[in-house]
Amino acid sequence: MTKFFKRGFDYLKNWSAPGAYQHDDDQEAIPKPKYWLHTVLLLATFFTTTLAGLFWLNIWRIGNPIDFLMLFMGFPFSVSLLTILGCHEFGHYFAAIYHRIKTSLPYFIPAPPIPGILNFGTFGAVIRLHQAFKNNRQLIDVGAYGPLAGFLVAILILLMAASTLPSIDYIYTIHPNYRFLHEIPEPVKMVGNDPLIFGDNIIFYLLTTYVLPYKIPMHEMYHYPLLLAGWLGLFITALNLLPFGQLDGGHILYAVAGKKIHKIVSWIVVTACIGLGLTGLINEIFPFATNLKIWGGWLVWGIVLLFVVKPWHPPLDETVKLNKRRIILAWISLIIFILCFTPIPFE
Fold this sequence. Notes:
Helices cover 55% and strands 3% of the residues.
């Protein structure tokens, strides 16, 4: 721990006055961070996620004027989601600092509300590494500690949601007709309505079945800001842990299995995403074509993986052996991926 803080202090101390980080193994001067840009993006994302929180609470609709006196009601969602994203990125950041890899502070990406598109107020957050990884120890640490940190914070937020969950009368104020049914109906029982159903994963199944004081179906979950933020945190964690390219899961796979296995698995993942997405799209166009329930959005994600993320990974020194702690870290990452993965995120 002392070594960790010493490296972090050394990293911050050595920003030179002209605006370049000086270190013995520098190949080039790296500009000082633009703190104003990070701050503006964070505030913009806080505003857009707050609007998203109001949207999911049915307090505000896209195209309507914004009642700024009501903004505070969107804070539980925005603060929770930004905390998860921030901890995820700072997990990468501090791991990079530990290995003396020059990196930027997190860039939060705001997402303005767009009619007809599911809006959560953000496209996520990223950091920019100014140096390449040198060996697989650096790779697995930087790749794994981000999703691990985000996952732990998402679990804490879900536990907070469970401990502060309002009584079932809360949902009755949103849907008064449920009171006469004496239950929250499942989507198959809802006549004349086409609800948005969030997908289940192992953690949410355990949460809604054994932890929450009453059963909340996944088509009503978005009325609870902390639950929605926690669900998104798990979903984002699973997407980042996909063993592909330079995603976090791709970093971990490369560090453990090497270049050849990484390449094979990456192509399997992107092929599966595109194939499943096409099947889901066919099901939506021709509902009776197959009986499989598949999310058509995997096609979009597969295209993003193929053309934006890309299935390759920069080479590095694979001769450095991973110690037991890092092997355990890789297995923990795999378990987290399985617990968080949502085959049908939206229906």
